[in-house]
## 1
Amino acid sequence: MLSSLTDALTYATTPEALLWVLIGAMLGVVFGAIPGLGGGMLMALLLPLTFGMESLDAQILLISIYVGGVSGSLTSAILLGVPGSPAAVMTTLDGHALANKGRAAEALSIAIMASFIGGLISWIVLVLFAIPLASAATQFRNFDYFAFIMLGLILIAFTGGDSPLKGILSGFLGVLLATVGFDAISASNRFTFGVAELANGFDILPVLIGSFAVRQILEDMGRNKRPPPQTTATTLDVIRYLGKAFRHKVNLLRSSILGSWIGVLPGIGANIGAVITYTIAETISPEKDKFGKGSTDAIVAAESGNNATVGGALVPMIALGIPGSGQDVILLAALVLHHIEPGPLLAMDHPDVFYGIIIAYLFANIAMFAIMILFLRWIAKVITTPSYILAPLVLMFCVVGVVATNNRLEDAWVMFGFGVLGVMMGYARLPLAPFVIGFVLGPMAEVRLRSALMGTGGEVAPLLSHPVAMICLIIAVVAIVFKARMVPEKARARHE
Amino acid sequence: MNRRLIDLWAGIILLVFCVVILISTFTIPDPGFDPLGPAFMPRFAIAILVICALILINKNEKRPRPNGTELPPEEQETIRYIRPISVLAALAVYIQLLVMQVALFEWLTTLYLIGSGMIVGIKGRKEVVILVIVSLIVAFSVGYLFKTLFYVNLP
């Protein structure tokens, strides 16, 4: 292993490989920072172009875009209140609130450092535990996944607002709307009302972009919002703020390790990682009252957690050939394009690619960190762009982004519809984060539960006998009781 | 509208929505090979939503009646509706024209950016010039990037 790792390190330090890392990270950061676009979409668009490249170079480029995109999306989440992916939803809650207080550079610096540390820790996890962790993740059964997803759904209901009732309502509205279209198990049409375009359901990007971006821009316009007072920062300011992330070092370490582990769970980890780390931090943080209002502790938890899931999600991808997230599917496709069979034999048959991916992930994190720090002072100036240019531009990018994802012009209408819904939800003070997470996790929970029950012939007892499922359900019950006690206290404190 | 009425109407609208969706779940065909069936999840979500809506309405009934202003000071901000609605309308027109493919993406986008920018608010001639230049550059750059390099289906 050590010699293969050294070989991969030697290759990754060649000028050509370093160039791909820099190009990928730069493109990822830029695309991730533009609302509506995102690193995942760029990876999909560039996939055919990687056919002519060396297989390892293609992986290096795509992984660098992946890492850059995840970190780039924190910029739009913090500056504009528009998350580029479901993983950045939690960052939006506190990052944007802090930016609105005129502390945009501080929020960005802390988020970047937390992302970087999260990435580094998950890289260590990747190097040390790739194969054992991937094997452990395959021991998860459908009931375990279902219980884990339900835990995520319950936890998210309590974030982003003082009313758990509205959080639950919002979350299950997302679950309900996610059931539109073909049912994954029976292939029955649900709520399509004879409209052929609804058969495939709603894609997550138009839903996410519509509900967050359109709502945010229209609300800002309606309130005639002006840019916050502090919108520029020198590089020295940025570096000074970076250290602030280490004031939450326990949270940083805990969220990074937890994010790495959650990322390992195939298919669900990347979406739920930030939710779990954020909620745990909120529960035990000394500044829990500030969560959702601009807490630096919250930003650290969300960003280290979501970036760590990237490394975690690479674990089942390279060790077992099971994609941990949508972006991992593209990485797998790039391997197949180059006639490399992903799976447990990858480390033996193609050690250069296996260890090259691991090294590329480390270098991509370093490149992302350097690029974000160097360009942060210009990125932060986005806020000062006059609204007559910024608002139409963001909406235009949203339209182009959702159309490009599936090459369907009609998706722009879906985005528009969810934008209107987002505005209505904002008017009714229903939090958006639970809605989006419910939309993402609902179908997963349904498929896992129904598959599990098909396997047991409708018997639900195994749900209570599986240890992982049991633990998740116990945590969920404890969380409900704990949070239910917190709410009257908060209400009383507000009243006083 | 104060928060009390907003919550009340949100609860009522949600209840009506749930009833309509619940009725339509009975039209979902069930092949019958899994114990729960395709209608289970929508009905489960509807059940939770109905409970939440009823609690929302009930809580609202128990809340003391407002005397004068009910919203806390930080929530009493003036919301202007004309500009956001105009921008939303411009976006709807832009999307429909793109779907109908009445002109090239670049020209439709330039027009949309200029039109929306004007709705958002321009104060002087210099700003108009900046807006036109930015719109042209962005529209044609994005068009080239996505249509020519990425083969995205834009008109």
Note: The CA atoms of residues 123 and 151 of chain B lie 38 Å apart.
## 2
Amino acid sequence: MNTTLIGLAGVLAAAAPVLFAVIGETITERAGIINLSWNGTILLSAMGGFTVTYLTGNLFLGFLMGMLIGAIVAFIVAFGSITLHQSQVAVGFVLALAGRDLAYFLGVPYMNTPGPTLPTWPIPILKDIPILGPLFFRLDIVTYLSYVVIILTWLWLFRTRPGLMLQGIGERPAAAFVRGANVNRMRYFYTVIGGAIGGLAGPAYTLNVKPGWMGTQTGLDGIGWIALAITIFGGWNPLRGAFGAYLFSLLQWLGLVLQPSLPGIPSQVLQVAPFPLMILTLLLVNIGDAEWIQRWLASMPEGTRRVVARVLRAMRASPPAALGVPFESE
Amino acid sequence: MKKNIWINIGFQVGALIVALLITTLLLAAAGAPPLKAYGSILSGAFGSSNNLIAVLITWSPLLLTTAGVLITFAAGLWNIGVEGQMVLGSIFATWMLRLLQDTNIPPALIIILGILFGMVGGALWAGLAGALKTFGGVNEIFGGLGLNFVATALTIYLVFGPWKRPGVGSMSGTQPFDEKLWLPTISNTGLSPWALGISIVAVAFVYLLLRGTYFGLRLKAVGKNMKAAYLLGVPTWQYSMFAFLLCGVFAGLAGAIQVVAVYHRLLPNISNGYGFLGLLVAMLINYQAIWVIPIAFFFVALNVGSIQLQIVYKMDSSFAGVLQDLLVLLVLLSQGVRERFLKKA
């Protein structure tokens, strides 16, 4: 029982990097911008954050560096797409590769050196709650921060006026503009904020989950692409996105735990087992909108149709209506 | 009109100069004398006939993936799954060779069947991404990325599982095929004139397809404005699907060539990023097929040359990637600058 709890607590901590990126991208996409650069952003912030902490001995500066890198990359995406009218996807994709290559190139001198790691910091009183204590409250400050970020983002989006405006600039920018929002300036703002939050992902990994920078062996490559998929899985909702991130982390952990009992399957295969599941969930999330499904639904007898339609609707998630669409005020 | 071309070229050259300036600073920061480092990249690419052959070998898969993604780009599709499509080409080619290697079928025929089967594999994977998009509403970027990971997992599973070498499986791949199943190469260097020839023909094919045919015109119509194309009677989803399949055929061919001409076995990292690199090349040349051949050559020369950096200066060979990525990024941004500030004037 106890080892399972510790394992599950590890899942929560290990999910933090993906989670930060998912929340960052959720905010960005809510504002109508696609930031495709995560794979590069995360690797670069992982290398940069680790290096800064390694050189200064200061953990806080490492995380700050991660946020700075995330914000800068996101700014380039915003500048390229909003000001210079280039394809968001193209700029983001190039940055995804650039960040990755840059991280591998610049990280060489700091490879395989032991560096400082985040200490665990059990929260007094809360840590003694049976089951919940060891599961949630005997971890480190960055994992706690990840809980806070999920909740705050949700509250901001759905319970505040600026959050409503944020939804507006992603759904109906023209309407938001008429109501007095400076759409493009807000898009800049939220893209950079999303980038900064997502920039925590790298240091959360190299200073906590798996300390150290190990070049291509770091084991972070690909995580940014997963974060993008989880954002869709989460239906642009921070809570559902967080659920997706935890699910992904849980599946990876299960892969490791189940490895000894499945000797026929190489460990590398179990590590990537979540990906086919990810495609499947993306399919389930999206398929309700497909034309042939609608036609098929229409041909069903009334009772069945209602049940199937409800199931499809429950899984469905629609992107912000103006996602990826540039906005011009004139 | 003529002035525009010169402004275009000016911006491209400007982007190249800025990219080189940044990478020069990076080299200096990383502790290598920049000019000497560039020199070693040059000699790493062209310094000896072996190096030049290595450049020519890697040229062919990049030509093929670029040719492939030009078709999907023309149809307005971001086929990021091209990487996985190439991997499937390698898997399917290896599969066919393994099936037939102990039969009496003439080796030449086996090789041809292997290549054809590789093309089928690539098309299959591309078709899957296309079907997910067309019938499931899954954006091709995310479907493609997921399928890339699945393709990698499948390769690793095969290399360590059912197709492992006698004894124990390792990252060095499956048991190499018998020499009779190697595509004829120039004095056993891995450089196959056939592979290079096919790749150049493929680029020419795509150029003509997009430029001079009714099909290419309608494909571009689908890419530019799907709704308008549909209203004008173009069967849009069929065209998208066909673009996917054709790109998959090219990517699969690239993967098959890696098996029959270069490595003669299946490796965990057999696609080597050529799919993503193809997307980069396509962006850099602004989707104009006429430029594929020289720019792809420039890219592979950088890739091969920068291995020298690793040897001489203990640097990561991702330097080539840094330069390529920066170049494409700056070209994209400078296009924006030009459109924004020059058109107004």
Note: The mean pLDDT of chain A is 88.
